[in-house]
């Protein structure tokens, strides 16, 4: 919107880097910038504004406005002059797609949104992308005048769904606000959605640090009826169009579930105050997904739905990286030289002396940490081949559940019995890479389906994000 005339005002801006005073710079509303994020083999990465709208009351902190977590492949800043009034790191579907083979062969466009407190005066939005040295470089700049006629100040008034409070521990500005959205539930299945939401939330709040900090959360559910039960599953030949468009086969991965209809999701979610969104899909097939500050998803009727929900929420909430590396993924792997990951629970271990979780390493634990890697990989390879065969046959989901239980029975005992199986160290094999990336502990909910919870490094990372929204 750089071409639009801006309202020029003389204001006293805060010093660069200084925290903004909320009431001086923002109203009580939420501004949402919707845009298209495009890329491909010949065009490079581009951004195009779609619209700027009112997204309801601002639910976030009035004091922790600038993000100091250093999480995310992207970061956006709301600036007035040289002063950063608000910022958040985030991930995106585009950012993940960019790492697939498809991105080198064709062009695609994804819809995305930025949400922040409604500014009182014209601001500049700066989107930054992480570089190989982990610094952020500018990739898009947009001027927004909240008084412009091209900015829609009216909040959405007609919502298709119904918001139901599940947990209310206080004012939204002082809590983490989680919205649970159902997709693929008919109107008659809303009692099932309510029960599914409570069951999976119980699983989340049974794990530390969520258990100890349960009162730092507000949770609401959005009942959003679908015409038919279930969601889109192309690999299985099941085709659906649902209110928010959740689907399997993202990047052609049979288990990866997301919605690509960001506008439908954001419009539906604007009925409630939220900072994080968990989408429950009414399906039996194992699957889910999670992207930092974008969305988390999980199917609700798999034998491992509770695990998937907690694991994917770890991605969405705290930017935790996948620690597994033997399963099939859509992303291109095997790079000769990998930069240090930004995820708090994965490292390239360029210099063991500067390991980012070195203060948590168990005394006497070698870095890198030896473990029975070859034997683990041999067993996992056999499991993965059987898993692919089950999906090729489109076999009943009970076969997949049984295979996962068999895998779990072996891995839990195997990993815990190793010499350093209870230690914090640096175990090679993480982030889809067998070589060159390391995880903090032998086992963690980000590595296996074993009932071991989050490792100590992941727990600390989650706690830091809770602090950012509640203090």
Task: Write the SSE topology.
Blueprint: H1 22-25, E1 26-39, E2 46-57, E3 74-80, E4 83-90, H2 93-97, E5 108-119, E6 123-130, E7 136-144, E8 151-155, E9 162-167, E10 176-183, H3 190-204, E11 217-223, E12 246-247, E13 258-259, H4 262-269, E14 276-281, E15 288-291, E16 295-299, H5 305-318, H6 373-392, H7 397-417, E17 424-430, E18 433-441, H8 456-470
Parallel strand pairs: 2-8, 10-11, 10-14, 14-16
Antiparallel strand pairs: 1-2, 1-5, 3-4, 3-6, 6-7, 9-11, 12-13, 15-16, 17-18
List keywords for this structure.
alpha+beta, Immunoglobulin-like, Collagenase (Catalytic Domain), six-stranded mixed β-sheet, disordered N terminus
Explain what the structure shows.
By secondary structure, the chain is α+β, with helices and mostly antiparallel strands. It folds into three domains: 133 residues, Immunoglobulin-like; 157 residues, Collagenase (Catalytic Domain) (3-Layer(aba) Sandwich); 114 residues, no CATH class. It contains eight helices and 18 strands. The protein has a six-stranded mixed β-sheet with strand order 9-11-10-14-16-15. Strand 17 and strand 18 form a beta hairpin. Helix 3 packs across helix 5 and helix 6 packs antiparallel against helix 7. It starts with 21 loop residues before the first helix and ends with a helix.
Task: Offer a concise description of the structure.
By secondary structure, the protein is α+β, with helices and mostly antiparallel strands. Helix content is 22%, strand content 28%. The chain has 3 domains: 22-154, Sandwich (Immunoglobulin-like), CATH 2.60.40.3250; 162-318, 3-Layer(aba) Sandwich (Collagenase (Catalytic Domain)), CATH 3.40.390; 352-465, no CATH class.
């Amino acid at each position: 919107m750089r071409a639009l005339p801006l309202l020029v005002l003389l204001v006293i801006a805060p010093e660069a880097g200084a925290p903004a005073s909320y009431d001086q710079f923002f109203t009580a509303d939420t501004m949402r910038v919707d845009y298209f994020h495009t890329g491909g083999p010949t065009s490079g990465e581009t951004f195009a504004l779609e619209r700027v709208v009112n997204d309801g009351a601002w639910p976030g902190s009035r004091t922790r406005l600038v993000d100091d977590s250093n999480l995310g492949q992207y970061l956006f800043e709301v600036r007035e002059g040289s002063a950063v009034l608000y910022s958040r790191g985030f991930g995106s579907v585009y950012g993940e797609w960019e790492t697939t083979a498809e991105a080198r062969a064709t062009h695609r466009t994804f819809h995305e949104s930025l949400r922040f407190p409604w500014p009182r005066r014209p601001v500049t939005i700066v989107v930054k992308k992480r570089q190989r040295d982990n610094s952020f470089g500018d990739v898009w700049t947009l001027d927004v005048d909240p008084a412009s006629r091209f900015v829609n100040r009216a909040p959405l008034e007609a919502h298709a769904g119904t918001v139901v409070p599940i947990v209310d521990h206080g004012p939204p500005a002082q809590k983490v606000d989680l919205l649970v959205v159902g997709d693929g539930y008919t109107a008659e299945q809303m009692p099932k959605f309510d029960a599914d939401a409570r069951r999976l939330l119980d699983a989340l709040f049974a794990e530390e640090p969520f258990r100890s900090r349960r009162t730092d959360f507000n949770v609401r559910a959005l009942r959003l009826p679908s015409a038919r039960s279930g969601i889109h599953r192309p690999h299985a030949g099941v085709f659906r169009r649902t209110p928010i468009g959740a689907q399997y086969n993202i990047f052609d991965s049979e288990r990866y579930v997301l919605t690509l209809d960001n506008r439908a999701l954001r419009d539906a979610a604007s009925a409630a105050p939220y900072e994080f969104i968990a989408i429950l899909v009414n399906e039996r097939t194992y699957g889910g997904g999670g992207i930092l500050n974008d969305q988390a998803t999980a199917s609700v009727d798999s034998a491992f739905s509770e695990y998937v929900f907690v694991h994917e929420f770890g991605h969405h909430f705290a930017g935790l990286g996948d620690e597994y590396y033997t399963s099939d993924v859509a992303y291109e792997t095997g790079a000769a030289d990998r930069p240090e990951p930004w995820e708090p629970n994965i490292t390239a271990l360029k210099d063991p002396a500067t390991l980012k979780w070195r203060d948590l390493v168990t005394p006497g634990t070698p870095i890198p940490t030896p473990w029975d890697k070859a034997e683990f990989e041999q067993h996992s390879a056999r499991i993965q081949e059987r898993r692919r065969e089950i999906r090729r046959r489109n076999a009943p989901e009970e076969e997949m559940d049984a295979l996962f239980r068999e895998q779990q029975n072996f891995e839990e005992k195997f990993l815990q019995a190793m010499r350093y199986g209870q230690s914090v160290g640096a175990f090679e094999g993480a982030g889809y890479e067998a070589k060159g990336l390391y995880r903090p502990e032998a086992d963690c909910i980000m590595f296996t389906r074993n009932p071991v919870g989050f490792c100590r490094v992941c727990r600390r990372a989650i706690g830091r994000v809770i602090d950012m929204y509640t203090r």
